[in-house]
Amino acid sequence: MITVPxxxxxxxxxxxxxxxxxxxxxxxxxEIRAEFVAELxxxxxxxxxxxxxRRAGVLELVSSIGVTWVEAxxxxxxxxxxxxxxxxxxxxxxxxxxPGGYTATGTAQAGSGLVAIAAEVEDISxxxxxxxxxxxxxxxxGISRTLLHVAMPWGLLTASVTTVDQRADQLxxxxxxxxxxxxxxxxxxxxxx
Length: 193
Fold this sequence. Notes:
Layout: E1 2-4, E2 9-16, E3 20-28, E4 32-34, E5 43-46, E6 54-63, E7 66-75, E8 78-81, E9 97-110, E10 113-125, E11 128-133, E12 143-152, E13 155-167, E14 170-178, H1 180-191
Antiparallel strand pairs: 1-4, 2-3, 2-6, 3-5, 5-8, 6-7, 7-8, 9-10, 9-12, 10-11, 11-14, 12-13, 13-14
């Protein structure tokens, strides 16, 4: 079963003869599920295009089982997968994941300085986390590590996160360290999903 979670950032790369490749960041507005990628129904997305505009290109599809690329078409606010995937899933997610909605505060190391951040956890597993900052329009460039305090259902989770990817207001990272009680509670929490 493939699940595209609500709130996921999907990137559609469109080729324009005049401008080259244009990358559109689209936010999925609803959770969509299917047995196979080719069977995914149209995905409602937040788009800045006018209602009559049609765009086609290669979609970087982030789902519950990993990341793949597939041809897709955007019409208005609906993103439709066109055919099967040209590539297989290239990033397997080995750890059980859980969608977020949990507040987090922390300190990010950016270059030689420290920056306080407030964020919301969009996705969490026993291996890492996806955050969206809530106290500023974008993250400072070059964040290498973040110390986080996340308000989870069982209590406060304290962890150190090494940055894997950073884009505008999102940061994806792997856990470098988790407090031992929090690690056990996180494992049980993710396994119960």
